[in-house]
Amino acid sequence: MKAVENTSIAERFAEIRGVTMKLIEPLETEDFIIQSHEDVSPAKWHIAHTTWFFERMILKEFKSDYEEFNPAFDFLFNSYYNTIGPYQPRHQRGVLSRPTVNQVIEYRNYVDQQVTNLLAESASETKEEIEALIYMGLQHEQQHQELILMDIKYNFFVNPLFPTYTETEKRPVSKQQESQFVEFEGGLVEIGHDGNGFAFDNESPRHKVWLEPFKLATKPVTNGEFLEFINSGGYEKPEYWLSDGWSIVKEHNWKAPLYWLKDKQQHWQIFTLAGIQDLELDEPVSHISFYEADAFSRWKGKRLPTEAEWEYASQSVAIHGNTLDEGVYHPVASSSDSQSELLSRMFGDVWEWTASAYSPYPGSKPLEGALGEYNAKFMCNQMILRGGSCATPLKHIRETYRNFFPPEKRWQFSGFRLAQDQN
């Protein structure tokens, strides 16, 4: 957990905390407390919880004279840290009309000032540890920046008015070439974080894995390709689905990806943070579950890549793309793919489902104390996604980053690319 930055940690703290406040600028007061599903959290809770993280993990540990803004917030805004104490149940975060939005922002400003003071006052023997924890808190905040956008989108989607979060300029697009497959010989390769710079504990240690020869698609699957699956009756044919996936499809009557709609003329549209738009066939398909990605892959006679295949393939690809920094907040069909890279759009646009279950790497060790609950305790019934999305901050993305969600979840900006064996 080592921080490596060209800017000072204080400057980085102000910058990232500022991004969060910018993301909530388009919201009205009423928008801050909505929780339309147990998977989503109100925007007010996000800005309070990220503040609580700095207060509880850093200020209360290292500032001897620290006075809490409100002791009750330790219960209200703890997320899931059982070693710290009880907390407001996740599905009841939306019942908290108090504290008010203004009070939460006052809390945020108070903690920001206290962190700034701590950085200026910290003794040399604790400075490195404090800065490393602050940097982790900033990585945590960037995760919640993406969650804020994901949750606002879902909360607005269930509103019959289909509100617009913010207007964005659509990028110019051109017809994309069909995806091809790049061959990889495999063999004994290394994946995992090498310890240079920041990484979460679940990304380490770097270790060897054996890969059989494989092929990986040059681009993620598009809306147009997924529409072919729909039109072929893909959601009605159990032979393409894992058993659990087929049960979910029947239970929830899935007929298309989340946020797909039809207008009065039965033309496909899609709900975005910029409102309802016509479905762009060349955009990467997004907001699909692992089960849908897996079923499509079987329908095509292909498969999903393992996370080791994905990471190994991405090691020669520059980290750039359509991320939160672009301000589009939607996957795009861009004509600006680098011609020097065989694989394109590995980073940004959509998180890509892999065929790998979320489990510890050989020799992996969780962090000590409460932060040991950050990742390790979720290593069950989750699948790995890689690459980052249109809502992920660019500086938050790493080729070793292991995102994870239950296989039925669809509200994240999730897509996929195909893989196949060489034989």
Describe the structure.
There is one protein chain. The protein has 423 residues and is α+β, with helices and mostly antiparallel strands. Helix content is 31%, strand content 12%. The protein is built from 9 helices and 12 strands. The protein has helices at 9-23, 43-62, 73-76, 101-121, 124-157, 223-231, 243-252, 290-299, 307-314, and strands at 181-184, 187-191, 207-211, 214-217, 260-262, 268-272, 275-278, 351-357, 383-386, 403-405, 414-415, 419-421. The strands form 4 sheets. Strands 10-9-8-11 form a 4-stranded mixed beta sheet. It has a 3-stranded antiparallel beta sheet with strand order 1-4-12, covered by helices on one side. Strands 5-6-7 form a 3-stranded antiparallel beta sheet, with no helix packed on it. A hairpin with a 2-residue loop joins strand 6 and strand 7 (275-278). Residues 13-148 form the DinB-like domain. Keywords: Iron, Oxidoreductase. This is Ergothioneine biosynthesis protein EgtB.
Shape: globular
Gap from first CA to last CA: 41 Å
Number of strands: 12
Quaternary organization: single chain
User: What percentage of amino acids are in beta strands?
Assistant: 5-15%
Pathway: Amino-acid biosynthesis; ergothioneine biosynthesis
Pfam family, one: DinB_2
Domain Sulfatase-modifying factor enzyme-like: 179-419
InterPro entries: CTDL_fold, DinB-like, DinB/YfiT-like, EgtB, Sulfatase_Mod_Factor_Kinase, SUMF_dom, SUMF_sf
Layout of SSEs?
Blueprint: H1 9-23, H2 43-62, H3 73-76, H4 101-121, H5 124-157, E1 181-184, E2 187-191, E3 207-211, E4 214-217, H6 223-231, H7 243-252, E5 260-262, E6 268-272, E7 275-278, H8 290-299, H9 307-314, E8 351-357, E9 383-386, E10 403-405, E11 414-415, E12 419-421
